[in-house]
Amino acid sequence: MKKPLKNLCIIAVSLFISVLNLSFGNKDAFHAANLVATNTDSVKHIACDKSVYDSLQLDLSGLSREAFDNAKKGWEKLSAEGKLHNQSVIAIVDFSQPSTSKRLYVLDMANYKVLFNTLVAHGKNSGKEWAKYFSNKLSSFKSSPGFYITGATYTGSNGYSLKLTGIENGINDKAIQRAIVMHGADYVNESLIARGYIGRSQGCPAVPVKDAKNIINTLKDGSCLYIHVPDQHYLSRSAMLKDSTGA
User: Fold this and answer.
1) Beta carbons within 10 angstroms of residue 115's beta carbon
2) What SS3 class is residue 174?
């Protein structure tokens, strides 16, 4: 899927150069062509990156367009600010889906791949089937939405785990104090789906034990994790989702 998109990008650049030749004459077009050629990689990235959602048919696997667009917007900001060491990978937890759906998506944005698509738990006080209630408070046992940057791994009471730093003030910035981490959990299991909801955590985005190590190793040390909620209270407060103009 990636190769045809690259070809389309190249064709678009070529057509643009041809138009310049017709409009401005060879001399001016030559300078414009040089400028375009210098930025060919950027053009490819921008044009093709916008097609990741459609290319991977993420709608068919349940990921909402809003969740993807928001995640991409924050990921791009963090990348531009140099805060991500693993810039090609992004993890999206889509809480617009019930816990019985595979609502965790780990995407390789550079190579157009879905690396993981699996179940993920929400906090026990956020709801049963659906995550509806959120908090940044200690001992709330609720999930916190927004953007996180992954940290180091460690082995604790929940086994192999991944530290998460919440970067949104007043929304998830107490994640470290709350010990909000990614870890494997037996209660995140497809065998529980029949009852209407999987097990819940104390606020951590817990994943199936069988996938935990591979997911954690993919995301560790500086990746972007976005927990999406279709909640206007969060969406209106998030500085990460505001345009540079403040809109």
Assistant:
1) 16
2) coil
User: pLDDT tens digits, residue range 141-184?
Assistant: 999 999 999 999 999 999 999 999 999 999 999 999 999 999 99
Q: How far apart are CA 127 and CA 139, in angstroms?
A: 15
Residue 219 to residue 92: CA distance in whole angstroms: 11
What is d(CA 229, CA 204) in angstroms, rounded to the nearest whole number? 15
Per residue in 128-163, is it b (16+ CB within 10 Å) or e — as a string?
Answer: eeebeebbbeeebbbbbbbbbbbbebeeeebebbbb
- Plot region of 184 (φ>0 → left; ψ -120 to 50 → alpha; else → beta): beta
Residue the block writes with tokens 């206007």: 232
* Count of CB atoms situated within 10 Å of the CB of 205: 26
Q: How far apart are CA 13 and CA 144, in angstroms?
A: 43
Q: In this structure, what token pair is assigned to residue 69?
A: 């667009």
> In this predicted model, what pLDDT tens digit does every residue of 80-99 receive, in sequence order?
999 999 999 999 999 999 99
Q: Give the global pTM.
A: 0.80
Question: Closest Cα to residue 217, out of 186, 184, 174?
Answer: 184
φ, ψ (nearest 5 deg) of residue 135 = -155, 155
Taking the C-alpha atoms of residue 3 and residue 29, their distance in angstroms, rounded to an integer, is 28
> Would the CA dihedral through 128, 196, 107, 161 be positive or negative?
positive
Distance, CA of 137 to chain centre: 24
CB 107 within 8 A of CB 146: no
